[in-house]
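Task card 7
Instruction: Convert sequence to structure tokens.
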Amino acid sequence: MKFSNFLFPESKTPADDFRVIEESLDEAVLTDELGFDAVWLAEHHFDGGCVYVDPVTFAAAIAARTKKIKIGFAVAQMALHHPIRFAEQIALIDNISRGRMIVGVGRGTAYNFYEFRGYGIDPDEAHERLLEVEDILIESWTTENYKHVGKYWQVELPVLRPQVYQKPHPPIIRACSGLESTLEMAREGRPFLMNLQSDQTTKERMDLYRSTMFEAGFDEEAVARCVADSWVWRNIFVADTDAEAEAIAVPHFRAMRAYLSDNRARMNTEEERAAQAAAVTGAARDSIDHGLIFGSPETVRQRLEEVDNIGVGGIIIHFRLGAMPYAANEHSLRLFAEEVAPHFREPDTDSN
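Output:
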């Protein structure tokens, strides 16, 4: 089971932006030094929920400051990007990082309608735009004299420069918020990114994902490879004791969820708020029981054994919850890397 850090830094006011951006760059470097497998970047606009807003620009900064860690998007909102500009940017960062890019893509937020309005994009077009952009990315990275005439994009280019470092191209992983989209990836033999879900839902989806791949004709090696390249999201905070972890993590988790809800109430229109209220949201996102793992290293290790038993490839871990002080977050990262992660990477000698 691979471990990664989801950099999703909240900044409540414009006055905080510079500080939080600097702390996030320091966190990326620390994550690399501590031996995590990947660092993931989000994309959200206009509300301070993700202070660096643009994962592409931020990925370039991280690529220049780190040495080994993979750099992924969880996710880039493809409806908000010109596909050729995005393809060029990824190719450049793939060279800067010497092949460390993972291109996580998605339709974009389901509830922050103000993000689409800010870019002049109809959110109802987001999924179709995602599908069209995926095709353009792959072809632009692998084809000369490429021409595409689609519903949203008409492009023609002789050859993309620079060429991508990874051949034939950096891995593309699609985010799946529901079961059907997950099974679509299974039928296509592709890995996926799972949003925050309970362990029970995670197990059900992973089991169905494997069985659907087998039914689609993929062999055990292909299934194992796709599972190994798939990632699930968890919020985790580690402290020296369970009591300390609860005292720090729970209030920041609740404040983070409230801040997100308040932004939507403030920035979405009345009609958009009605559509949001009518939608079915994942209970795990707001639940302390299902949406947050916290405790001493031993407690967190025991909880993660349950996830490991499901058989997931990797965990996208959101460590810094909301406006959590950086010092507390740094201590949590170090405890996890030094006292939790080794249990899942080395033989467990405690049982002998």
